[in-house]
Amino acid sequence: MRIAHLTPPSAAYLVPDPAELPGHEDVTVENVMIRVEVPLATDPARLVLKDLVYVDSALQAVADGFDGIFVNTVADYGIDLIRGTVDVPAVGAGEASVAEAVSLAPTFGIVTVWPSSTQIYYDRVLAATGAADRCRSTRFVLEETELAGLGGGAGVMAAAHDPDSSVAARVLAVARDAVDRDGAESIVLGCSCMTRLTSYLAAELPVPVVDPRATGFAATVAAARAGRTSVEANPDTVARIRAAVDVWAGMGDSVTTAWADDCGDVCATVA
Questions:
Q1: At 68, is the secondary structure helix, strand, or coil?
Q2: Among residues 10, 16, 92, which one has the least CA distance to residue 51?
Q3: Name one GO molecular function term (predicted).
Q4: Where residue 150 falls among pLDDT bands split at 50, 70, 90?
Q5: Are 35 and 56 in contact (CB under 8 A)?
Q6: Is the dihedral angle over the CA atoms 75, 77, 78, 83 positive or is it negative?
């Protein structure tokens, strides 16, 4: 069974390891690269661009014969459009994490390493999953003004991937506030780049901690084992999506951003 891991080049290192799953012997995972790196979307228009480049990559995954598609970002870029366009099962890290959180406890909180300018993602995922009333809070660790000093998005991702970093300690403090002050009974890490903090946080907190990368990947494998869907996409629509991304790719990765160094799509502005 082949699983496509949709990712920009900057986050290819977050490809899941099938060995982390029980019964993984027949599962392989391969990166399918996003053709245009669109900066983190802090506005609706850029969010549309990100959705479409993920649909484009999903179409490529289908053409390449994959059995399942993993959108490894808590923002779940393009997930509904993908499901309406291809017959290969697709799962987003965000929706899978929220489902896991509500299965573990009545309420949850989202803790993100990114600034509050990324709120648009959380709002969309919570609305799509119907879990907004179960979410006690979304807490943000960093301020916008801190990003450049940490090396931009790439530097933040590296720090969020290191349990010994000062950023990790701040994530723990914010997670404690989500539990103690907001009443969250489980914690969702809003960014796949924080996967290595899961054990560290779980050892320090009195509530379960949901790792979006591991949770989303397991859900993708389960969906792929269940078989294909009955979607029949309009060939003209598919061709136009691919053609539009062809044009964007020819323009280069030049979508403007206020971020000094974008972290890549996987961050989904949630952590």
A1: strand
A2: 92
A3: amino-acid racemase activity
A4: confident
A5: yes
A6: negative
Q: Report the SS3 class of residue 158.
A: helix
Q: How many CB atoms lie within 10 A of CB 200?
A: 18
The residue-averaged pLDDT of 232-242 equals: 84
Domains of the chain: 2-93+215-262 (3.40.50.1860), 94-212 (3.40.50.12500)
76: closest CA among 56, 54, 59?
54
Q: Distance (Å, rounded) from C-alpha 153 to C-alpha 267?
A: 9
Question: Do residues 76 and 95 lie in contact, with contact meaning Cβ atoms separated by under 8 Å?
Answer: yes
What integer pLDDT is reported at residue 67 of this predicted model? Answer: 96
List beta partners, residue 99. none
Six-digit token pair at 211? 């790792």
What is the C-alpha to C-alpha distance for residues 52 and 32, in angstroms, rounded to an integer? 15
Q: Say whether 227 sits in a helix, a strand or coil.
A: coil
Which residues lie below 8 Å from residue 250, measured CB to CB, with a gap of 6+?
A: none
Residue whose token pair is 């974008």: 262
Q: Which amino acid is at 86?
A: V
Q: Mean pLDDT across the chain, nearest whole number?
A: 87
Going from the C-alpha of 169 to that of each of 73, 134, 239, the distances in angstroms are 23, 26, 47
Q: Tell me the three state secondary structure of residue 149.
A: helix
Partnered with residue 68 across adjacent β-strands are 3
Burial of 110 (0-12, 13-18, 19+ CB in 10 A): buried
Q: What is the pTM (predicted TM-score) of this model?
A: 0.88
